[in-house]
């Protein structure tokens, strides 16, 4: 499953959500919630100016609602991206760690320890 998701992704990046999606706000007709990820490393594909805008087009997409969340994320599209839940391991509920290890193997590097699953809660704050 992870190998297929990686092969189908147009872009794979590590980064930090610097502007989260506003999923709970009333947006004007035709407007989509968009998060912005400051890219620290591009493993596959291309991102302009080190910022990846990620749109929430449907309920199949990830909601990136936590500012400061650090992620390794598989994206689709060019210019403005989407991040599908299943392509980022949400269907691998009981095998999420194995999915992430396989993605890490495919990119050739383990993800940093402070990274969390895209769309999931950020790590707890340190006291």
Question: Could you explain the architecture of this structure?
Answer:
There is one protein chain. This protein is an alpha+beta fold. It has one domain (2-107): OB fold (Dihydrolipoamide Acetyltransferase, E2P) (Beta Barrel), CATH 2.40.50. It has helices spanning 2-8, 96-107; strands spanning 11-19, 34-44, 51-55, 70-78, 80-82. The N and C termini lie far apart (37 Å). The chain is globular and about 40 Å long.
Describe the structure concisely for a colleague.
By secondary structure, the chain is an alpha+beta fold. The protein has one domain (2-107): Beta Barrel (OB fold (Dihydrolipoamide Acetyltransferase, E2P)), CATH 2.40.50. It is built from 2 helices and 5 strands.
The SSE order reads HEEEEEH
Largest sheet: 5 strands, mixed, barrel
Radius of gyration: 14 Å
| Approximate shape | globular
CATH topology: OB fold (Dihydrolipoamide Acetyltransferase, E2P)
Task: Give the strand order, joined by hyphens, for the main sheet.
Answer: 1-2-3-5-4
In total, the number of domains comes to 1
Secondary-structure content class: alpha+beta
**Helix content, binned percent:** 10-25%
Number of helices: 2
Low-confidence stretches: none
CATH classification, class level: Mainly Beta
CATH architecture: Beta Barrel
Counting DSSP E segments of at least 2 residues, the number of strands comes to 5
Mean pLDDT, all residues: 89
Bin the strand percentage: 25-35%
| Spatial gap, N to C terminus | 37 Å
């Amino acid at each position: 499953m992870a190998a297929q998701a990686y092969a189908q992704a147009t872009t794979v990046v590590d980064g930090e959500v610097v502007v989260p999606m506003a999923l709970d706000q009333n947006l004007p007709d035709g407007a989509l919630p968009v998060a912005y990820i400051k890219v620290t490393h591009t493993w596959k594909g291309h991102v302009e100016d080190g910022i990846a805008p990620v749109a929430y087009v449907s309920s199949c997409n990830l909601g990136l609602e936590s500012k400061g969340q650090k992620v390794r994320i598989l994206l689709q599209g060019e210019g403005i991206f989407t991040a599908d839940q299943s392509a980022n391991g949400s269907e691998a509920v009981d095998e999420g760690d194995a999915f992430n290890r396989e993605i890490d193997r495919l990119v050739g590097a383990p993800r940093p320890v402070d990274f969390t699953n895209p769309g999931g809660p950020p790590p707890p704050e340190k006291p």
